[in-house]
Design goal:
The complex is a heterodimer of chains A (about 350) and B (about 240).
Chain A: E1 2-10, E2 13-20, E3 28-36, H1 39-46, H2 51-57, E4 60-61, E5 65-72, E6 83-86, E7 89-90, E8 107-109, E9 112-113, E10 121-123, E11 128-130, H3 137-141, H4 143-159, E12 166-170, H5 174-186, E13 191-196, H6 199-202, E14 210-213, E15 225-228, H7 235-245, E16 251-254, H8 266-272, E17 275-278, H9 284-296, H10 298-305, E18 308-314, H11 317-328, E19 334-339
Chain B: E1 2-7, E2 26-27, E3 30-31, H1 32-41, E4 46-53, H2 58-68, E5 74-78, H3 83-97, E6 105-110, H4 118-131, E7 133-139, E8 163-172, H5 173-181, H6 185-190, H7 194-199, E9 206-209, H8 220-230
Parallel strand pairs in B: 1-4, 1-6, 4-5, 7-9
Antiparallel strand pairs in B: 2-3, 6-8, 7-8
Classes of the chains: A alpha/beta (about 350), B alpha/beta (about 240).
Chain lengths: ~350, ~240
């Protein structure tokens, strides 16, 4: 079967090409229905990645956050019409120790492999997680981002000591918001503090114990554990601020992507005996846990609905450009494409 | 119930020196007709996918379909002398085997348009249910000129009001059958298009937005373009 694939061929240039899909392969044929734009997609689209990265990864269909509908499952494990979250990470080798999202052999959609901007996508059964129909599909669309936070949360729970009275989240963007919401519900007895630079963005964190402008943090404020969800050029000052305010033997989760090397105060990391750990992407179990979390805490979905920004009905390539242009000017929230192409 | 009717009536006379009907030519790894039939086969809304082809090609068509898809959801029937006779055969098959009522929808499609998309098929089903008939079209890009004698222009219609017809064309089966049976032989002889059955009887036909790439593989040039398209080359839409 021939399926149309909408690829970024150069910055701001999307063109259609065609894939032959083997429907007898045993995999599940799905149709994307709602897709969310991620900052990583936007960097490819705007051409702000390095020339070397653009040269090696394009042409490529963007988008790795998507909720899809099952069209055809030759094994009958899914029913036509089932709503599923499509997992962009695809492991190619098994490993009992290293998680699928850290294996160099795994590949990731919209990072060197075609993402979900396609008419149909053929996916292995284990790359799909069923989600109930009553979850807002615009929220379901960015479950991948939620699963990244869920993965961080799981690692935190494994790594951090049990004194979790005060938890700090640095970053007032989408990831910071999702991380803080998950912490709020996973650890209802903890006090969640959020640190950011934009008062208007911080005003969305109404569920937090307190929010602070990073230029005005009380000097005596201390936290037990911290999550850095800043990335970019702000990562350095955020990490060093965490090191200043964290209690001894606390944990620091680094989750924000930075294109630059970051200089951090290792002297105080040593002196306080901190545990600093990285976290990136997510695997199937994190998607499953996210869907379970939605079910267990319906309010979480309500909070995430606040992140839904523009919803663009996509019936043409021009509409895809429109969605990316709206998204690039968005300060917080997710741009959703309703896939009608 | 919704039925797909794939019209594979072509005898291949226009495909260069090849005697093989164009729907059987290989595009990528499979015959064109397989690519097309699969688009309907995977869609659970279709009760059956009915493929109609010339009598001498029925067994061949059955064989190549069986190689790719082993499922009784697909049936191969003999077509008629004209496109509309072929369609009528499909209607008769549906009536005899499943019955036809006001909810019966048929989505008819050229076997040689393998690039049809999910959206186009879904919108055809919805439009046929809602309006009774629909045609898939794209806005005309070339200026169309009319010439009554083939030598001079008699008129140049306003391009903004012109569209190029593609397929699928979809209908409420009951209505199509009744209208077809009400036509005189003279009217039937003049019909080149199923939607015309509706329009000459004053029945509205809704437009569904097609795609430029939902091309019909008619000439050797088209097959070359199609091959290039699926070999990773790129076209704007």
């Amino acid at each position: 079967m021939i399926s149309a694939v909408y690829q970024l061929t150069a910055p701001r240039m999307i063109e259609v090409t065609y894939n032959e899909l083997d429907i007898s392969s045993g995999d599940v044929l799905v149709r994307p229905i709602y897709l969310a734009i991620c900052k990583a997609d936007q960097r490819y689209y705007q051409g702000t990645r390095s020339q070397a990265a653009l040269k090696s990864k394009l042409p490529m269909a963007l988008i790795h956050e998507c909720v899809a509908q099952v069209v055809f499952d030759p094994k009958g494990e899914f029913n036509p019409g089932d709503r599923v979250i499509a997992i962009p990470n695809t492991p190619t080798k098994n490993d009992d120790i290293i998680a699928e999202n850290y294996r160099p052999s795994s590949y990731f959609r919209s990072s060197g492999h075609n993402g979900f901007l396609q008419d149909y996508v053929l996916m292995p059964h284990d790359r799909l997680v069923k989600i109930q129909d009553d979850i807002n599909p615009c929220v379901a669309a960015f479950t991948e981002l939620v699963s990244v936070s869920m993965h961080i949360l799981t690692r935190f729970d494994e790594i951090a000591h049990k004194r979790r009275k005060k938890i700090g989240v640095w970053g007032d963007g989408n990831l910071g918001f999702i991380m803080a919401v998950l912490l709020r519900y996973a650890y209802p007895d903890s006090q969640i503090y959020v640190f950011g630079t934009n008062p208007d963005k911080l005003s969305y964190f109404t569920f937090a114990q307190e929010t602070y402008d990073v230029s005005d943090i009380p000097s005596d404020l201390s936290i037990d554990h911290a999550f850095e969800c800043v990335g970019g050029t702000g990562a350095q000052s955020a990490i060093n601020q965490i090191i200043d305010h964290i209690n001894p033997e606390g944990t620091v989760a680094l989750t924000g992507v930075s294109e630059n090397f970051v200089a951090i105060n290792t002297r105080m990391i040593l002196e306080k005996g901190l545990r600093v750990y990285g976290s990136s992407r997510s695997g199937r179990v994190d998607f499953e846990n996210s869907v379970i979390f939605y079910k267990k805490h319906p309010n979480v979905v309500k909070y995430f609905e606040n992140l839904v920004g523009d919803i663009v009905n996509v019936r043409s390539i021009t509409d895809i450009h429109k969605a990316f242009d709206l998204d690039v000017n968005r300060r917080i929230g997710k741009t959703i494409m309703k896939w009608e192409k | 119930m919704v039925f797909a009717v794939v019209l594979a009536g072509g005898m291949g006379s226009r495909m260069g020196n090849s005697d093989t009907p164009k729907q059987f030519l290989i595009l990528g790894k499979s015959p064109i007709i397989i690519h097309t039939v699969e688009k309907f086969y995977v869609n659970s809304k279709f009760e059956k996918v009915i493929v109609l082809c010339p009598k001498q090609w029925v067994s061949h068509t059955e064989n190549i379909i069986k190689k790719s898809i082993k499922d009784e959801k697909i049936v191969v029937l003999e077509g008629g002398n004209t496109r509309n006779d072929t369609l009528y055969n499909a209607l008769n098959y549906i009536e005899q085997n499943h019955g036809i009522d006001d909810e019966t929808i048929i989505v008819t499609h050229d076997a040689v348009r393998p690039f049809v998309t999910h959206r186009i098929i879904e919108e055809n089903i919805e439009a046929a249910k809602k309006y009774g008939a629909c045609d898939t079209v794209i806005p005309a890009t070339d200026t169309i000129v009319e010439s009554k004698d083939g030598e001079t222009i008699s008129s140049i219609p306003n391009r903004a009001e012109l569209f190029q017809g593609q397929t699928p064309q979809s209908f409420k089966a009951n209505k199509l059958k009744n209208l077809y049976e009400s036509l005189t032989q003279d009217e039937k002889d003049k019909l080149t298009d199923a939607c015309k059955i509706f329009s000459i009887k004053g029945e509205p036909v809704h437009l569904v937005q097609g795609e430029v790439f939902n091309m019909k593989i008619t000439y050797p040039f088209d097959l070359r373009v199609a091959q290039t398209m699926i070999e990773g080359a790129i076209t704007n839409d």
